[in-house]
Amino acid sequence: MKDTLAPVLRLSAHPDSRCWYVAWSPKGSLLASCGGDRAVRIWGKEGDNWECKCVLSDGHQRTVRKVAWSPCGNYLASASFDATTCIWKKKNDDFECLTVLEGHENEVKCVAWAPSGNLLATCSRDKSVWIWEVDEEDEYECVSVVNSHTQDVKHVVWHPTQELLASASYDNKVCIYKEEDDDWECRATLEGHTSTVWSLSFDPEGQRLASCSDDRTVKIWKECTPGDGDGSTDGAWKCVCTLSGFHILFPFLERLKHIKLALATACGDDGVRIFKEDTTADPEQPVFYLSAHMPKAHSQDVNCVAWHPQEAGLLATCSDNGEIAIWNYHSDA
Amino acid sequence: MALLSPSDDLFDSILMADDRFHVEGYREGFEEGTRQGMIEGRNHGRLHGAKLSAEVSFYHGFALTWKYLLQNSEDVKARKRLKAVESLDGLIQKFPYEDPQYENLQEDMERVRAKFRQVCSLLNVAVDFREYVSGSAGMAF
């Protein structure tokens, strides 16, 4: 493997606690992290080092599971096990809590901003996915509640270019939602995984969706086009590739992010893997190969992996040991 | 039974007694079981029917009340809320919840529940109605 993954630095981000998620701000100048210590931390670069710029510690009563930046970078949403989602507004170098979105019956597992910046999606252990709309006066309103899953919903992600939402659940399925008559509905259900689907990621063009599961595989899905000739109905998705055999130990948690043709996964075996797409393969049947592997990226489960939005190859990860690590991925090809 | 000579009949009736009693007992038990099952099934159906209709009627009453409260408001926000409330009402009116064999019963019920939660969120109404509906818990047949 001539491709390399090299460590850049390590931060003890959430001491004595788990760090659940890291997210780069849209321009990549800030990194937000959240964890079991109920806090959200904002990190910024000072020279060669990353320093904690501020700590948002009184927003939640329980673990903060995910953070998400708005596309404009002025707002941060944090989803917590305390059943609420906090919206923070950036004010100079600090953040203040703008509003708290309530409604879920129990732990909120994920929050995601739509690329338009007007919509927000949250999902929860209460099996529902909520879609919120924000207006010019920073007022948030619930537009739809959808109960398509039969179990805990782990992750929601928006399509990068269309108004389309995808969710992953403990019920082994992925649901795709579209708006119809002011109401959001599940338009397609992707079946194939044989265990909990933990995470989803669209590729930057929105042509394919990658899902990772407790069944130790990563699946790549594509929307069926009418002329496919395999009798599939409009709006259905099919699995075009399954990556298996790579995550040998129990990948209790896998996180994955696409960037160009590389897919990064974070695993419960403490490792980080980068997969690259074989460009010579048929686009209808993509092939991915393991390009780089860092076996002991952290001393415990790696919970999240995030590609830097601007600097190619820069990657952040975080772990159950409370650490954040930054890596440089280099590929010759 | 075919006519048998008295000596055959005596032995037969002893040897076959066990078998005969088993058959008779089975038949009696089966009839009793059928009777009990019918009663239990009916109760089960009644209870579930009552639960479902109580829930749907609750949402319906809720929707009608809020419709009344919001319909005369000129406020833009109120119009949006009214639309959502009307949508809830529409959903309820539309599906045949009285038909237990309706194939999409569960699905449509979930949709109504989800809509109700969304409407509560818009109206800023807490969804914990436990105190109000405790009366229905006392239902028994």
Keywords:
heterodimer, A: 333 residues, mainly beta, 4-stranded antiparallel β-sheet, B: 141 residues, mainly alpha, rod-shaped, WD40/YVTN_repeat-like_dom_sf (chain A), Probable cytosolic iron-sulfur protein assembly protein CIAO1 (chain A)
Structure description:
The complex is a heterodimer of chains A (333) and B (141). With 333 residues, chain A is mainly β. Chain A contains no helices and 28 strands. Chain A has strands at 4-12, 19-24, 30-35, 40-46, 49-56, 64-69, 75-80, 85-91, 94-101, 108-113, 119-124, 129-134, 140-146, 153-158, 165-169, 174-180, 183-190, 197-202, 208-213, 218-223, 237-243, 255-259, 262-266, 272-277, 288-294, 302-307, 314-319, 323-330. Chain A has a 4-stranded antiparallel sheet, with no helix packed on it. In chain A, strands 2-3-4-5 form a 4-stranded antiparallel sheet, with no helix packed on it. The N and C termini of chain A lie close together (11 Å). The model of chain A is unreliable at 248-256 (pLDDT under 50). By secondary structure, chain B is mainly alpha-helical. Chain B has one domain. Helices cover 75% and strands 0% of the residues of chain B. In chain B, helix 2 packs antiparallel against helix 3 (76-94) and helix 3 (76-94) runs antiparallel to helix 4 (105-123). The model of chain B has no long low-confidence stretch (mean pLDDT 84). Classes of the chains: A mainly beta (333), B mainly alpha (141).
Overall pLDDT score of chain A: 87
Cα distance spanning the termini of chain A? 11 Å
Secondary structure: number of strands of chain B: 0
Q: Number of helix segments of chain B? A: 5
Which class best fits the helix and strand makeup of chain B? mainly alpha
Spatial order of strands in the largest sheet of chain A: 1-28-27-26
In DSSP terms, counting alpha (H) and pi (I) runs of 4 or more, how many helices of chain A? Answer: 0
Radius of gyration of chain A: 19 Å
Q: Termini of chain B, distance in Å? A: 47 Å
Largest interface: A-B, 13 and 14 residues
Query: Sheet with the most strands of chain A?
Result: 4 strands, antiparallel
Name the assembly state.
heterodimer
The number of E-state strands of chain A comes to: 28
Judging from the principal axes of the Cα atoms, what is the shape of chain A?
globular
Mean pLDDT of chain B: 84
InterPro entries (chain A): CIAO1/Cia1 (IPR028608), WD40/YVTN_repeat-like_dom_sf (IPR015943), WD40_repeat_CS (IPR019775), WD40_repeat_dom_sf (IPR036322), WD40_rpt (IPR001680)
GO biological process, one term (chain A): iron-sulfur cluster assembly
Pfam families (chain A): WD40
Keywords (chain A): Repeat, WD repeat
